[in-house]
Write a structure and sequence with these properties.
The complex is a heterodimer of chains A (392) and B (50). Chain A has 392 residues and is α+β, with helices and mostly antiparallel strands. Chain A is 32% helix and 24% strand. In chain A, helix 10 packs antiparallel against helix 11. The longest helix of chain A has 14 residues. Helix content of chain B is 28%, strand content 0%. Chain B has one domain. Chain B has one helix and no strands. The radius of gyration of chain B is 10 Å and the shape is flat. Classes of the chains: A alpha+beta (392), B mainly alpha (50). The interface between A and B is medium-sized, with 17 and 16 residues.
Chain lengths: 392, 50
Amino acid sequence: MIAPDDEAGIAAAICAAVANREPLSVEGLGSKSGFLRPVQTARTLSTCNLTGIPLYAPQELVVSARAGTTLATLEATLAEAGQHLIAEPPDYAFLDAPAQTIGGIVATNLSGPRRIAWGAMRDHLLGMRAVTGRGEVIRSGGRVLKNVTGLDLCKLFAGSYGTLGVMTEVTLKVLPKPEATGTVLLWGLHPEEAVRAMSIALGSPYSVSGAAYLPQEAAMVMGYERPSTIVRVEDFADSVTYRLDRLATLLGRFGTVEILDTAASLSLWRAVRDAEPLPIQPDDAVWRVSVRPSCGTSVLRAGQSAGLFGYLDWGGGLVFLNGPPTGEAHAAVVDAARHANGAWWLLRAPESLRRARDAVPHEAAALAAIRQRVVAAFDPAGILNPGRMFAA
Amino acid sequence: MRVQFTEIELEQQRRVKSAFDPEWLLNTAKVFPLQANTPSAGPDDLPRAA
């Protein structure tokens, strides 16, 4: 494990790896090493010693953090000024490490329930510094939203899983935490009814910032007795009260409506964010599928038919599934996602499955060609996380 | 652009442009200035400006 404490050290390590033709696994604290495909390299390059927050200007709504800064540290710093990360990045309960780095969050473009209303991590990445697979330091973007000079390489690096370069510092837009959070809860709906209710709520003028559906088993993990459809509102307290009341009226035709206060809402949505409602067993595989909200139920039902459990976030557009890590279950998820024209990620599985099967959707030939050229533009020797996303 | 970016950064951006548009057919000089005294922004197999 190589864990330099500055950017120059990262660059030196990559230059040495290029010279020796010795591929590197790239990670922060390794919490997401179980995502996608396993990387087999003799050495690992970690950003975990690149810590610190060189810039935080609350009045400008911008923060810069070195890549190895933990999510908890960054969130605590923002909380001191009453602010937070807009995309609500998750801290999945099934991760195999106690902490995540902000570099890892950005590199995997992980976003939580608020994404449907406020955008993904990628959308709030204003700028970055990185060392490419050529060992060269590059900067892209800046500290403001409207940065128009040159190509926006940040958009490529968010979600690139360390296959283009090693981010050393990220600059993010942040926002004030809402004063209050409230939830409208509907009991006992079928998945299709739930998506209809969530669509009505999301299409209403009441600025819903979360919409999720927990089927029976997921609801029971959360201590509820019946399937639960939940809709979130975040804002100033008076506005939240008013909007919850209007949403309750709007959704009344779907049955009895319950309202959750700020404390109950915060803990419930944190659980939804962190995939806690999955009734997960130690050896289970976990899939995350992103589709049009109208297709979420078909993916959920296909998973259930294959013996999997799951729930819906993003108004039906994000499906979490867990269950036995069999080839049949994997094929069922892949087929359902392909049928829905969606994207998916294998987030946890035994190495045998991760090695034998795709971990992200199969690419069309034209897209694969562009992706390979983009990777070659940053990492021509293929030394950064080889095989992480696609089999070589 | 050469005030804001180093030559290394510009070259990296040109490589990305080449990945999507290998022949540099689309809006060739829109993002990258093609001045006579700067290296050609084209792919390696095209002639470079003096």
